[in-house]
Amino acid sequence: MAGVKRPFEAVLDHDRELARCLSPPCLGADLSRSVSPSPGAFFSPHEAKSRRQDGTVTSLLSPFMPTTRDFSPDASMLLVGIRGAGKTTLAVMASTAMNRKVIDLEIAFLRTTGFSSTDYKAKYGILECHQTQAQVLRTMLNRHRHGYVLVCSWMHGSAQKALRDFATTNPVIHILREGAAIEKLLQVSEKSKVWNLLRVSNTVFRSSTTFEFLNISEEASPSKRPPPPHLALKHVERHFLKFLSSIYPAGSFPYSEPVLPLSAVPLEKRRFTYAVSLPLSDVLQDHFDMEKHVIGADAVQITVDDLNKSLIIDQAQLSQLPDSITAAVGRVRRDTVLPVIVHIVLPSIESQDTVKAYLDLLWHSIRLAPNKITVDLRVDISSLSAIVASRNRTKIIGHLSTETSENPPWSSPSWISFYRKAQELECHFVRFVRLGQSVEDNLEITSFRNKVSGIKGPNIPLISYNLGPLGWHSATMNQFITEVSPDSAANASEEPTSKMGITTVDATKALFASFFFHPLQFYVFGAYVNKSLSPAMITAGFNACGIPHRYQPHSSKSLQNLEHLLRHPNFGGASIGHPFKIEAISLTSALSDHAKAIGAVNTVIPVRHLNSDGTVPEQSELFKTSANQTGAIKALYGENTDWIGIRACIRRGLSPANAVSANTCGLVIGAGGMARATIYAMLQLGIKDIVIHNRTQANAESVVSHFTHLLEQPDLPTPLSESGRTRFIILSLDEPWPEDVRFPTVIVSCIPNNSLGSGLSPRLTLPDSWLGSRTGGIVIELGYTTLNTSLLEQVREKSKAWITMDGLDVLPEQGFAQFEFFTGRRPPRKIMRRKVLESFRHEEGSPKPEAMQLRLMHVDHQEQY
Ligand SMILES: O=C1C[C@@](O)(C(=O)O)C[C@@H](O)[C@@H]1O
């Protein structure tokens, strides 16, 4: 739905009025002056005043932070921001994902008064218009507290008051866009007006909203090649849903929750997890290659170390920091699947100016809903506790770092008193780091950890280690969320500085070198896997992360003679290929819920420790006890990652116009193990009409009966529990498309297209009448031996609205999940995707070389689901 758009001049008139009402010392807003923006900024640095005439520093922001921020899953959200920020598009995305209605306040105003805001203002004057808008706003907010997405761009005082009241019970989100993008979008000749409007609106909305989301536009960056059009909106959609899921309680987005295995295991529950520390200025660089910097990391820490510099050097620079932090959090959240930590460095507590600026930045950062934020434990408890109380779902790391040679030893009681302070603040983690001064410091830290574990009160997980070369040992041995430098930094600097930390690759290599981790042997098993691309792909991942495991293909006529490989103490795990995916269940002692539901496995991992009652531990435990360890194998655990790969490709390829709704239909071709994984992926995405075509009707019937039975089970986990009226329909090619079923927008062909099985490359095409979707859809051919299948050619000829994908798209996606099971580490996605494309050798149906080149180029834009 589209909002009522006001002419741009009307927007400016309105905001000129508004600027007059704003309090001068804090904002320094004067729309009559023109400013020239600096690239990437939301407003001009020279205009924002933060130092008063008398020399005292005022608050950079007016923190508005209601403490009640525990929203119910159905709490309506209100999106506010200026025209052009993309509120309506985002509202539609949220409404589809959460199954809610959108209400545009401009339309509500028109319906209530019979006038648009502009006409009403012309007829009754500006004050009357503002009052009526505020009334409409209050009425609509009161009536629609649950189950809606509301959109509003009114900024005047009475509207702001209504926003603040609503924010005490519901999420009120300020939507921003970079100045360059708004400028381009609105095509206004006087650019300074746009920049001034942005400056004012940011200040206004920051004082009446609880959250802020930067709607990053790819076109805002002139140096970056834009992604293909069908992907541009997907990036925005994924980014926004990821942001919303950090605000709403877990489970609020049943069809878009993260499904990668490590996403379900908190960083502190795994062994050796790393937060790669990226300086704010690096993240904001135009050509910043995010993946290169986060290889092997489990979280990304944005380190804001600009406070000292800014206060001394440049007030204007300081005033830009909130915008920069917003932009950096946006980029990291959009470009990775990793949790985001914001770490603002407080250089000194002697200067009140610095502490004040520090607190302002903390208030601001909490608005961005990062997964974690650090608070410096030197700051007084009353200032920090207000921030902690407003944290919503953000976890708090009580932080203390001493980097000078006078820093107190670990035996000093001051560390213990800071730990107690963190307990009082109800921090979720404590992080203590100090410059290592002797090798003995690494031993002292162990006794310090023991001392902490004896402290009365809540047992807050402790992250503690020594910095610098003398501290590397303790940093490597720290169990979770160790701060590390990006690998690229190590490569760039020939002589590591004393403060430079270890990288994830260094740490991983050190764990293997010191026998904490052991090199293991992995396989892909199948009847004919000599040409499998998995070995090249997974090995590329191992190498990039500094992991010395080996992965090899092993073709075999049967699974029965593999026992010696599966029970070898060095066995690390295996991918299971065609035709063993169902039979491989018989090798396992326990299956994941997904593998059980699908009735097929494609991943087997060893279990080295059983529970005391002899059962296999929870999946999350396996990462800790079995990954990267040799030793006697007590059992095998079976998982299915094919559905994760198929789900990721469907999500990536479905345009917002084809977003899954109650009537979406999926068509599955085939009835083997991959067809089962596909049906399961469709159910997980909320597709409720599933049509199956298979040459042998009896096999299709058995698949349908399998899933019908599954959906009848009580206590199904979400989102399967939502699949109430799911219909399964078996159709043969000579039948017409059923009248009461929408044309399919998701088509997945699961026929193996290598020279196995049927012995045929598929020549299958669908009746033209089945391809009736006017908005096209996505067709995925799961095989990758033959890329240009008849089906893919058929839909490509039909219309550009059909997006086609093949096994070269699905293989890495399922491989990422497998890599996590095999190593307990996040996969380097681009490297693995690239390796698959580079290693591919076609059997027939040669893809044009330039087509492959194009695919390699697009690897940069592929979504991270
Ligand atoms: O289906 C496949 C392909 C595969 O078997 C291969 O040969 O690379 C690897 C499996 O993990 C995956 O499920």
Could you provide a short overview of the structure?
The protein is an alpha/beta fold and 865 residues long. The chain is built from 32 helices and 25 strands. It starts with 7 loop residues before the first helix and ends in a 7-residue tail after the last helix.
Strand order of the largest sheet: 12-11-10-9-8-7-6-13
Number of strands: 25
How much of the polypeptide forms β-strand, as a percent range?
5-15%
User: Which regions contain 5 or more consecutive residues with pLDDT less than 50?
Assistant: 1-62, 492-498, 755-761
What would the keywords be for this entry?
Shikm_DH/Glu-tRNA_Rdtase, Quinate repressor protein, 865 residues, 25 strands, alpha/beta, binds 1,3,4-trihydroxy-5-OXO-cyclohexanecarboxylic acid, disordered N terminus, 39% helix, Shikimate/glucono_kinase, eight-stranded parallel β-sheet, SDH_C
Q: Would you mind describing this structure in some detail?
A:
The chain has 32 helices and 25 strands. It is α/β, with parallel strands linked by helices and 865 residues long. The chain has an 8-stranded parallel sheet. A 6-stranded mixed sheet has the order 15-14-16-18-19-17. A 6-stranded parallel sheet has the order 22-21-20-23-24-25, sandwiched between helices. β9, α16 and β10 (395-402) form a beta-alpha-beta unit. α1 (8-21) packs across α9 (191-206), α5 (117-124) crosses α6 and α26 crosses α27. The chain starts with 7 loop residues before the first helix and ends in a 7-residue tail after the last helix. The model is unreliable at 1-62, 492-498 and 755-761 (pLDDT under 50). Bound molecules: 1,3,4-trihydroxy-5-OXO-cyclohexanecarboxylic acid. 1,3,4-trihydroxy-5-OXO-cyclohexanecarboxylic acid (DQA) binds next to β14 and α30. Residues 524, 526, 529, 532-534, 575, 577, 602, 642, 814, 818 line the site of 1,3,4-trihydroxy-5-OXO-cyclohexanecarboxylic acid (DQA).
